[in-house]
Design a protein that fits this description.
homodimer; 361 residues; alpha/beta; ten-stranded mixed beta sheet; two-stranded antiparallel ribbon; 12 helices; 41% helix; globular; binds 3-isopropylmalic acid; magnesium (chains A, B); 3-isopropylmalate dehydrogenase activity (chains A, B); Isopropylmalate_DH (chains A, B); leucine biosynthesis (chains A, B)
Chain lengths: 361, 361
Amino acid sequence: MSDYKLAVLAGDGIGPEVMVEAKKVLAAVSKKFDINFELNDYDVGGIAIDNHGQALPPETLKGCEEASAILFGSIGGPKWDSLPLEQRPERAALLALRGHFDLFSNLRPAKIYPGLEALSPLRADIAASGFDVLVVRELTSGIYFGQPKGMEGEGEEEFAFDTMRYSRKEIRRIAITAFEAAQKRGKKVTSVDKANVLVCSRLWREVTEEVAKDYPDVELEHIYIDNAAMQLLRYPNQFDVMLCSNLFGDIISDECAMITGSMGLLPSASINGSKFGMYEPAGGSAPDIAGQGIANPIAQILSASMLLRFSLGETDAADAIDAAVMKTLSDGVLTGELLAPEKRDQAKSTSEVGDYVVAQI
Amino acid sequence: MSDYKLAVLAGDGIGPEVMVEAKKVLAAVSKKFDINFELNDYDVGGIAIDNHGQALPPETLKGCEEASAILFGSIGGPKWDSLPLEQRPERAALLALRGHFDLFSNLRPAKIYPGLEALSPLRADIAASGFDVLVVRELTSGIYFGQPKGMEGEGEEEFAFDTMRYSRKEIRRIAITAFEAAQKRGKKVTSVDKANVLVCSRLWREVTEEVAKDYPDVELEHIYIDNAAMQLLRYPNQFDVMLCSNLFGDIISDECAMITGSMGLLPSASINGSKFGMYEPAGGSAPDIAGQGIANPIAQILSASMLLRFSLGETDAADAIDAAVMKTLSDGVLTGELLAPEKRDQAKSTSEVGDYVVAQI
Ligand SMILES: CC(C)[C@H](C(=O)O)[C@@H](O)C(=O)O
Ligand SMILES: CC(C)[C@H](C(=O)O)[C@@H](O)C(=O)O
């Protein structure tokens, strides 16, 4: 019997209600696979600002440090948008957690599920050709964290500056993540850069090619970010793993998420070199629909599955959750946003979907 | 009778053949509107490397300096892709010309033409809702030109760095371009940034809001680049003018171009503070179809129209070209790539399309 301590940070908006469903699912695999979870809840984001005066209180951080992994909900909302930038949930909690735990490896799978092609904003024939991409995004370096960053000068000559920065080591470790992932998938890595303009991208290309030599079974392709943004619309099924720097991955992963048309189904993982990680839905806190019991819990449930797979190595339990989710979707047990307008009366609630997943395990 | 000297830089691939059609159209408006053009041809890009050993030879640059504006074709191709980056056509000619003439204001219109909705890779109902965007991209600053840029350190700690940099002055002048353009269009500016991460974006937001005060009839909205990349797919018709920094504009303008599904119709303008400008198709040199007489000349023809409008102030002639192009499209006089596969036998050649446009003037 394995024992794990998990930090559960449900956060704001729909976070708490979808987290309830993920916990049910964890309870189900706990029983079935004889895994013991100690789930400890901590405030994060807006609720933490309200309760403790800051988005990432020390007790939350301490709880995360003591855990094997973090199951994260979603944070932010209009209530906290007028705070100074540095104190807002997204920066003060999300970027801080990424930096603190060196969660450099961000995995964002995006796929069009069979039967849900009509949700994609892409033309029917293009969506029908299929889309199943894993965006591997570098998450703790690049222009997000590069120094120096600031303002200088006076009057109209005053200027702002940010530094994009990548070391060989930083590029190598994320490239390795991408190639290892590709070996288990479509065996193709498309590295996204702007090597015709950025020195960082040139080093990115060089190191990626070095890493590729250790993975002869995986094809490596380079694409400029502007072209990638285009090709994703026209020939989305040409991609398997897309390897991106922090900024480019931010853009490309959101474009990929939108291409599926079903953000409520997409989990994500942010992992460090010791397999410690933070797992969260790709979508936001959706304050407009919070508290109504209509939010889709699947992304949160699949985030729990990624946690089991990548941080705990509990592959069987993760596989069981993934299969249960597939069954739930193919049985048409769906929240409203996945249904055509004329079928919305068949929509299931957040907890009905969660219960159905549990029943399949 | 007005007299203008124009530098014509046809370049590589399909550049020369579509330029022939643009020249025909200039000849037609010359007659009709009593404007005298002195058209001087110069080598640029790959052909200039072949003939003169460099992508932007001094005589070409001198010719541009002596002209009222530059009509540019397209450059590059596999033949020159193995050259060191600094010598390649795109950097050595395109970036050099932008920098040399301080062409900070890049206008990239993208729209879905009535009747051509099916070309869009977006879902039919979304494409039918309409799309007509002008991307206003800052073109001579930001991370493209910011200093320092380079490499430092040793071994695995060796790192590359690029600097994103914007002064108040640089932001102000491109924001003014965007607001003035919006006044003549849909009266809405969406400023694209990453203000939750970049100091440059925060200054960008601040200055954009200052400029907005002078244009009370224009609505200003801010959007994060990742969200913009998504919203363009789901609700493309919410946008009118999209104001972007150099890097973000590179990505967003290509995404917009692809959304139209008809790159061969899209012109672009790069203008400086004295209304000197360089005008070129949005698409590339398409070496795969060069020399076959099937390339679409419309983007090149509309580039000539933008030149007349923005650098020469010859509004009547520009309007006449735009109207002639609209008529050509609505009469179904189209090159093959705009036609459904089963209608390709009705495709017109490059010169047939050019002649038809001329006949409408
Ligand atoms: C909230 C923001 C700072 C964050 C990012 O840009 O990384 C978000 O967009 C994301 O992708 O997780
Ligand atoms: C060729 C390249 C340097 C250029 C750019 O990034 O500006 C191109 O993509 C463009 O958009 O004109």
